[in-house]
Amino acid sequence: MPDDDVTISGQIRDKLIAKKQEWARDGRLLTGTSADPARERLPPGQRLARDWPVLDLGAEPDVTPEKFRLDIDGAVENRLSLRLENFMALPQTDSVSDIHCVTQWSRYDNRWQGVSARDILALTRPAPDVKHVIFTSFDGYTTNIRLDQFDQPDVFLVHSWEGKPLTRAHGGPVRMLVPRLYLWKSAKWLRRIQFTISDHPGFWELRGYHNNGDPWTEERYS
Ligand SMILES: Nc1nc2c(c(=O)[nH]1)N[C@H]1C(S)=C(S)[C@@H](COP(=O)(O)O)O[C@H]1N2
Ligand SMILES: [Mo]
Question: Most buried of 25, 29, 184, 192, CB within 10 angstroms?
Fold first, then answer.
């Protein structure tokens, strides 16, 4: 019965969220050290993963090309509302980067393809007083970064990984990639990017995770 399914997955989800909040409260996984990204490749307290684990709230939305829409708005000169074909027609860039998840795994040399954050900035032209960027996803997830963290050469709106379209589990058709911050900042199933003057902490940031999320200084929890 569909109603039961909803209740059961709702319970699993609540348990999972409660567990992660408990970890944040207890400061689990913290080593109390930091590392220099210029000299070391693995941030403190991380271990290397060969596969790519899936982490999310448990409800993975089925974002078909028909349902896809990406709105880029807020305090910008030029708002965009893109269908998938419009997004795919923007300039495409390849990149390779390492990713670091707060649950302690890191994965090296991921090959991505997508639209660079800097191309998005050039197209939309945020107002001079914009300081924050807020991501909203098709599953209702939200997360926040600063404009200076978005405005980096390795930040992308990605649609492909290792030459193949991003799977639904990993946030396809389009997700954020902010490789220098913990991976919870990289919103999957991207629906909206807002450029704002004030900050708006997102789903995990409101539940004990650090507002900034730098793996090199172990900004896991607030
Ligand atoms: N839309 C959405 N994006 C999300 C999440 C989510 O639940 N929903 N989880 C975040 C968390 S906590 C992590 S660790 C990464 C995991 O990405 P992956 O499943 O591709 O490894 O996605 C982030 N982006
Ligand atoms: Mo996470």
Answer: 184
